[in-house]
Fold this sequence. Notes:
Elements: E1 2-3, E2 9-10, H1 14-39, H2 42-68, H3 89-113, H4 116-137, H5 147-150
Antiparallel strand pairs: 1-2
Amino acid sequence: MSTSSTGTPTPVSDELTALRAALRAEHAAVYGYGVVGGRIEQARREEARTAYDAHRARRDELARAVRDLGGTPDAAAAAYALPFPVPDSAAAVRLAAELEERVAGVYSDLVRASTGARRGFAAGALREAAVRSVRWSGESVAFPGLAERAAATPTASATPRT
């Protein structure tokens, strides 16, 4: 439930729920790419910077979309728990691939929950995350972000540290 301007609870649409999940995933990706950028070898630093900038832009677009549907965008957490330690460049590459896989999963949910231009936005973001994931990992899946694949690995964003 969200709250209307009069203070009364209003039902939250599936689309708004999916937008907010995508926003949380983008917050986590921006944080994660900060870690990646600090550990990645010089040869791939520009690639990490480009991905970081793309996630920041998507994050900002999603915050606007949440507001457009009457919701309140979730703020970024101060820190997020990483899925594994990132002591070196090889681990930073694995983290970047993991971040993209997780983002692809939430964008897949947003594709299912939205229509029109917002569905096109979500499909484009899903495609971009899938391509970046392949570039980082060297591996691909037939249908990135599908729920069947998500059952094996969580699609939620990294967990905020409290």
